[in-house]
Design brief:
With about 160 residues, this protein is of the alpha/beta class. It is globular, with a radius of gyration of 15 Å. A 4-stranded parallel sheet has the order 2-1-3-4. The longest helix has 26 residues. Helix content is about 40%, strand content about 10%. The chain has one domain: Rossmann fold. It contains 5 helices and 4 strands, in the order βαβαβαβαα.
């Protein structure tokens, strides 16, 4: 299964989701999942705290890059997950085709103002939330669900 995470700037939440999905999928080795991330208006760089807190969590950051969804046309995702509200409202490229599209609204930890510890806590909470959702996603990927059943189950994960 190929998953494309979309966030407008592709520098934090979608990057975290890509890295964590690949990490958890590899660690569990039950389902073949490949995750990538992109943005409609990529920032061109990954947020430095995204890298820092992924590494703290033991998640590889190799190959992570802020990129346009136009660069991934050949990827042909089975599933597209928007992780920010503005990306959820955008018109997606036609090449997303028959991909299952769902929205997992995630709080942006890079927007937290405050002490270093408050920022760290925000990143750790977002990483934990993504890990929870990805673990549930892997459980769903083992089942033989129709696109509609999968979409409904995934939307419930995003609403929890």
């Amino acid at each position: 299964m190929k998953i494309l995470y979309i966030c407008t700037h592709n520098r934090c939440r979608s990057i975290l989701s890509e890295a964590i999905t690949n990490h958890v999928s590899f660690a569990q080795a039950q389902v073949s999942i490949q995750a990538k991330s992109a943005g409609s208006q990529p920032a061109g760089e990954v947020h430095p705290l995204s890298i820092q807190y992924l590494q703290e969590a033991g998640v590889s950051t190799a190959g992570l890059a802020s990129q346009s969804w136009d660069e991934l046309e050949e990827f042909a995702p089975d599933m597209v997950v928007t992780v920010c509200d503005s990306a959820a409202g955008e018109s997606c490229p036609v090449w997303f085709g028959k991909s299952v599209k769902v929205h997992w609204g995630l709080t942006d930890p890079s927007k937290v103002e405050g002490s270093d510890e408050e920022k760290a806590q925000a990143f750790r909470e977002t990483i934990a939330e993504i890990q929870r959702r990805v673990t549930e996603l892997l459980a769903l990927a083992d089942k033989e669900l129709s696109q509609e059943e999968l979409r409904s189950a995934l939307n419930k994960l995003g609403a929890i």
